[in-house]
Write a structure and sequence with these properties.
A hairpin with an 8-residue loop joins strand 1 (2-7) and strand 2. Strands 3, 5, 6, 7, 8, 15 and 16 form a 7-stranded mixed β-sheet that branches. Strands 11-10-9-12-13-14 form a 6-stranded parallel β-sheet, sandwiched between helices. Strands 2-1-4 form a 3-stranded antiparallel β-sheet, with no helix packed on it. It has helices at 42-49, 114-134, 151-162, 174-182, 196-203, 221-226, 250-253, 265-268, 272-287, 304-312; strands at 2-7, 16-21, 30-40, 58-59, 63-71, 83-87, 97-101, 105-107, 142-145, 166-171, 187-190, 209-214, 228-236, 259-261, 295-300, 319-323. It has 2 domains: 2-121 and 266-323, Medium-chain alcohol dehydrogenases, catalytic domain (Quinone Oxidoreductase, Chain A, domain 1); 139-262, Rossmann fold (3-Layer(aba) Sandwich), CATH 3.40.50. The protein is built from 10 helices and 16 strands. Helix content is 30%, strand content 28%. It is of the alpha/beta class. It is globular and about 60 Å long.
């Protein structure tokens, strides 16, 4: 038996239970991983509330780092004792240990700690695909990135600076603005005291930006469209304020033939070779020191309810860990 977080039905943080669950030997193509640290991400809230559906009862959590305890038949790229990390399905990382498909796991360089890995896999791989695959940045662009002081945002600030991109970031407080600046964000807008659309237009000399990366959703969606230059791309990759409401496609045409996409990390890492390439680039950025993972909150896994409350109240900044 191991301790793990389970939900019997969807709802608020109180639906999460810290319970004993059985754990088996890994089957073909599987490994058993003993977690040293688990990552907390906003997508976990989507699963807990039912915005993202899954069969119930169920676990929660999308990323963790630890050590392989046992390997099932047919697994050749991992062995017992390997340091590993992962981000993605199946859901259930909030646990002391679990069974995982071996193809979803990558070996962790000795230079990267378990805490760092658990804090960066989902968020770092997200920045990798956003900047290099969804809308490939070549350097010299000016972009808009919402929630610049969050876990994904602070990685994006540093990554943008490293590749020569001018990042405009939005935040919800002056304290978060200073944090984003300290991590390399060129221009920071406090959306609670400033009109971010107006400020983006001022910063860009009225041109707008070629791409907006938006994890907020409902509250920023139309404003994000208004920040785009003609034929710009809206990348909606989260719904922290709620789902984007239905809208007419004419909203895109009237603003200059805009593009819009709703990407998911799981689609970008579906092929093993893509996952390995993306992880290698992330590890290289961290090992070089160009991107530092800022872990600002740690909670015992048993206090997962409070961790979710703080996340939803936007009290957290940077990356957050749950420690089994």
């Amino acid at each position: 038996m191991v301790k793990a977080v389970r939900i019997q039905h969807t709802g608020g943080p109180e639906v999460m239970e810290y319970v004993d669950v059985p754990i088996d030997e890994p089957g073909p193509g599987e490994v058993r991983v003993r977690h040293h640290a688990c990552g907390l991400n906003y997508i976990d809230v989507y699963f807990r509330t039912g915005l993202y559906a899954q069969p119930l009862p169920a676990g929660l959590g999308m990323e963790a780092a630890g050590v392989v305890e046992a390997v099932g038949s047919g697994v050749t790229h991992l062995r017992a004792g390997d340091r590993v990390a992962y981000a993605g399905r199946p859901v259930g990382a909030y646990a002391e240990a679990r069974i995982m498909p071996a193809d979803n796991i990558v070996r962790l360089p000795d230079s990267i700690s378990f805490d760092t890995a658990a804090a960066m896999m989902l968020q770092g791989l997200t920045v990798q695909y956003l900047f290099h695959r969804t809308f490939p940045l070549r350097g010299g662009e000016t972009i808009l990135f919402h929630a610049a002081a969050g876990g994904v945002g602070l990685i994006a600030c540093q990554w943008a600076r490293a590749i020569g991109v001018t990042m405009i970031g939005t935040v919800g407080s002056d304290e978060k603005a200073e944090l984003a600046k300290a991590h390399g964000c060129a221009h920071v807008i406090n959306y609670n005291t400033e009109n971010f659309v107006q400020r983006v237009r001022e910063i860009t000399g009225g041109k707008g930006v070629p791409v907006v990366y938006d994890s907020i959703g409902r509250d920023t969606f139309i404003g994000s469209l208004d920040c785009l230059s003609p034929m710009g791309m809206m990348v909606s990759f989260g719904s922290a304020s709620g789902p984007v409401p239905s809208f007419s496609l004419n909203e895109l045409a009237s603003r200059g033939s805009l593009f819009i996409t709703r990407p998911s990390l799981m689609n970008y890492t579906a092929k093993r070779e893509d996952l390995e390439q993306m992880a290698a680039q992330l590890f290289a950025m961290v090992e070089s020191g160009k991107v530092k993972i800022d872990i600002r909150q740690r909670y015992p896994l048993s206090e997962v309810q409070q961790a979710h409350r703080d996340l939803e109240a936007r009290k957290t900044t940077g990356s957050t860990l749950l420690i089994p």
